[in-house]
Amino acid sequence: MQFDAELLLLAMAPVFLACIGWEAWHLRRTRPGAQLYSWRDTFCNAALALMQQAADKLAWLVIIPVYAFFYDHYRVYMWQASWVSFVVLFVAQDLLYYWFHRCSHRVRWLWAAHVVHHSSERMNFSTAFRQSLMYPIAGMWLFWIPLAVFGFPPKQIVAIVLINLGFQFFVHTQAIGKLGWLEYVFNTPSIHRVHHARNDRYIDRNYAGVLVIWDRLFGSYVEEDPHEAPMYGIVEPLHTYNPLKATFHEWASMAADFVSVRGWRNKLRALFAPPAWAAAYHAGRAAGANVGAAAAASSGATSIEDNHTAAFQTTRRP
């Protein structure tokens, strides 16, 4: 089956914009005090989308030849264009997307790109546009190489990735409730609201792209609880609508942690440990600084250097 996914998504652009307009109107009418849309947040999302699209256009120029190399030299099968090959490609890519998405929440290097998508404290259709231009640097494209080895041409790989991501636009909403039996097969707004939440019971769950069967199969599925509303955003909140800061804040934090920690084992953790490691490290440093400041004040420390010394000594005590 041959198709041009880029033209398909371009044709869908008015539909995406109409959905955003309808949702903003509907939520203002039905939940007037909730402020589920913000002009600044929406414009930030739009700017991030444009930046990501521009970066992807350049990245594909390099990545497609890589897929072509594996397709030409290492493919194990040759698929004929048909509905059967399309279904196999769709399911295989969706499985690989699940693992890419799960790794993006468990490996800080990947999270540094993916965190952009989660950094808004709002959940609406415009949040789907909130993407990072750094995905090619993080290595998202590496996860699709098996599709080339499995015998799918590079342009079909790009097309199915775009279709998968295009579908996910429609699960970024609070205006649609649960969808009955569909919840057992497909990713839905309810399932994806859980994924964007930072509540303890919800965090790092529901990694589905299109099919939720992978979450159910690999033990990462959690149902949205009507008695516990999702709280959106990230554990270390991003207090800015600047798209450049949204894009690079975690990369800057990761670099700073890499420089500040001692020992190569900790330096590797700063790059590749789960994001929870960084949050705990930052919390520990903040707590140590607070305790150190109090200790320095009580001992008459008069300089910044004294305060840092007191903090280090206090946090080293058993």
UniProtKB/TrEMBL annotation:
GO terms for biological process: lipid biosynthetic process; membrane lipid metabolic process. GO terms for cellular component: endomembrane system; membrane. InterPro entries: Fatty_acid_hydroxylase (IPR006694), Sterol_desaturase/TMEM195 (IPR051689). It is a multi-pass membrane protein. It comes from the Bacteria. Signal peptide: none annotated. Pfam families: FA_hydroxylase. Residues 86-220 form the Fatty acid hydroxylase domain. The chain crosses the membrane at residues 6-25, 76-100, 132-151. It is found in: Endomembrane system. One of its GO terms (molecular function) is glyceryl-ether monooxygenase activity. Keywords: Lipid metabolism, Membrane, Oxidoreductase, Transmembrane, Transmembrane helix. PANTHER family: ALKYLGLYCEROL MONOOXYGENASE, STEROL DESATURASE-RELATED PROTEIN. This is Fatty acid hydroxylase domain-containing protein. The lineage of its organism: Bacteria, Pseudomonadati, Pseudomonadota, Betaproteobacteria, Burkholderiales.
